[in-house]
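Bug report

Summary: structure tokens for ABC transporter permease differ between web form and batch submission.
Environment: batch mode, default settings.
Steps: 1) Submit the sequence below via batch. 2) Compare with the web form result.

Sequence submitted:
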Amino acid sequence: MSLRDAGPPIALVVVFLVFSVLSSEFRTLGNVQNIMDTASVLAVVTCGITFVLLMGSIDLSAPGIMGASAIAVALLVANNRNDNDLGLAGVLMAVLLAAVLGCVSGLALVLLKVPSFMTTLGVCAIGLGVATLMFGGVQPNISDATLASLAVDRLLGFSYLTWLAAACVLVGYLVQRYSRLGRYAYAIGGAEEVLSLSGVKVAPYKVAVFTLAGAFYGLAGVMVTSQLSAGLVQAGKGYDFAAITAAVVGGTLLTGGRGGVLHSTVGVLLVTVLTNGLVQIGVSPYWQGGVQGLIVVAAVAAAVLPQRRRNQVVK
């Protein structure tokens, strides 16, 4: 592990210790549980977007995909709008819908040769449109006991959503570390031309990465529905930039080829601890955004500066 990789975990520990000194409420077990529960949805979204960032692409489709998944699962499980009661099958169908939308992003990227931020922005709009059509002007409230219990019931002090997020992080790490998809995502971000010249067809792996990311977003949409006990079109509002922020703060480069799921997860915890700590010590919400913005800029600068020095021509 390099010093740059150790930076975010060290920063997380330092920030936690500082807020623990400044606020007695911050260091309580209840607040730690609250931090972990709050970070759960963002962690799942960040898992998906990390694979896209590893390729050097940008994904802005999370809000639309999460909205479509949230409304879909609310209408497929027991609810106040229809007689559906598909249970786990409804959850799987909602995640499948999200994966299809993610696949559309990948196909648009490789077939139309349009920059990823434009294609994913378009898919975000498509997802929001689909969600709005399914919403139909009447909010679907869920009555499925199993889905609702995920945000309420606890195991070892943490909600089931937190454990679900931990499982997603583990799955994401295993895919990144041991699968061909994970290795090629790194290679595409590091040197796509070299990978193509070696005989690897890059396009299918790009589509697969966006499909995987869409599935993560879909699961996150289901988690938000569990938290709210209702399906909302705006269930994913703000999660795209929050996930990118967390990934970058954790050490995943926007240019691709460096970082990973564990790096990004540390970034999620760092951002969540920072937000929680600022609230605990009474910092105005207007200042919180500015502080977080400064941290993102500093994190990006710290990650890019060594590369600039390495590429500098000495005369």
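Above is the batch result. After comparison, the two runs are identical; trailing whitespace caused the diff. Residues 43-267 form one domain. The longest strand covers residues 154-155.
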